[in-house]
């Protein structure tokens, strides 16, 4: 794969949005800005369709929205540290502070999105990792948390 799944440019610090939909749109716009997506609207639509199937809220302040879309140019991960916690249907009822978005082109063969989700979920099961992420307040430290998972 010629492009990396995650780079420091894929990190958003203090994402200032009022609700889940605005957060997903912010991620879609960032994906378009970085060339990950050819169409922010189409990417946003993919996130919303997935949320309608089942919420991607995890536990302990994390959400993992994901989409497979024709608008996605290459597999990528975008991480957002929100300025304010958001209501997001989560497994434990907690609000979300960290959003880890997985973006995969529809054309990618196999189950890459499931593999990425699985790798991330295993890491999020560890309290030490969740704590490290929650205590990362700048781009470099947050990127450091995720680069080993997605290299």
From TrEMBL:
Keywords: Phosphoprotein, Phosphotransferase system, Sugar transport, Transferase, Transport. This is PTS EIIA type-2 domain-containing protein. SUPFAM superfamilies: Phoshotransferase/anion transport protein. Residues 4-149 form the PTS EIIA type-2 domain. It comes from Tetragenococcus halophilus subsp. halophilus. InterPro entries: PTrfase/Anion_transptr (IPR016152), PTS_EIIA_type-2_dom (IPR002178), PTS_IIA_fruc (IPR004715), PTS_SugarTrans_NitroReg (IPR051541). One of its GO terms (biological process) is phosphoenolpyruvate-dependent sugar phosphotransferase system. PROSITE patterns: PTS_EIIA_TYPE_2 (PS51094). The keyword Phosphoprotein applies. GO terms for cellular component: membrane. GO terms for molecular function: protein kinase activator activity; protein-N(PI)-phosphohistidine-sugar phosphotransferase activity. It holds the Pfam family PTS_EIIA_2.
């Amino acid at each position: 794969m010629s492009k990396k799944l995650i780079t420091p440019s894929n990190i958003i610090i203090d994402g200032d949005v009022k609700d889940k939909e605005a957060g997903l749109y912010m991620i879609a716009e960032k994906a378009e800005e970085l060339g990950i997506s050819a169409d922010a609207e189409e990417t946003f639509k993919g996130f919303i369709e997935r949320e309608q199937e089942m919420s991607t809220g995890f536990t302990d302040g994390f959400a993992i929205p994901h989409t497979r879309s024709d608008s996605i140019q290459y597999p990528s991960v975008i991480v957002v540290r929100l300025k304010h916690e958001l209501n997001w249907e989560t497994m434990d009822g907690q609000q979300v502070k960290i959003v880890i978005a997985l973006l995969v082109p529809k054309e990618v063969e196999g189950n890459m999105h499931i593999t990425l989700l699985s790798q991330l979920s295993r890491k999020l099961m560890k309290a030490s990792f969740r704590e490290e992420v929650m205590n990362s307040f700048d781009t470099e430290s947050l990127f450091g948390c995720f680069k080993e998972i997605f290299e």
